[in-house]
Amino acid sequence: MEMKITDLNGLEITVTNINKAITQAENFKDMHHIPPVPADKERQKYWTDIYNKLLELKIKIENEQSS
User: Fold this and answer.
1) Of 11, 28, 43, 45, which one has the fewest beta carbons inside 10 Å?
2) Which domain of life is it from (predicted)?
């Protein structure tokens, strides 16, 4: 199965390792500067979206494998 998601900018991202991708996105979605800078919220929004899409993709893959 080809694993792809689309980011908030409309770019298609190919996922080669779903579990590693989820771990990476989970780490990035909560990162911020100290003190926070204005761009932090936008980056967190981006990585939270990626994280959620990866979780959805993993569920889809697991459902297809169990069918």
Assistant:
1) 11
2) Bacteria
Quote the CA–CA distance of 33 and 35 in Å, as a whole number.
5
User: In which domain, by residue range, is 15 found?
Assistant: 4-66
Q: Burial-class residue 22 by CB neighbours within 10 Å (0-12, 13-18, 19+).
A: middle
Say how far apart CA 49 and CA 43 lie, in whole Å. 10
The count of domains in the chain is 1
Q: Which of 63, 54, 59 is nearest to 21 (CA)?
A: 54
pLDDT reported for residue 2 = 74
Q: Could you report how far apart the first and last alpha carbons of the chain are, in Å?
A: 14
Contact 57, 21 (CB under 8 A): no
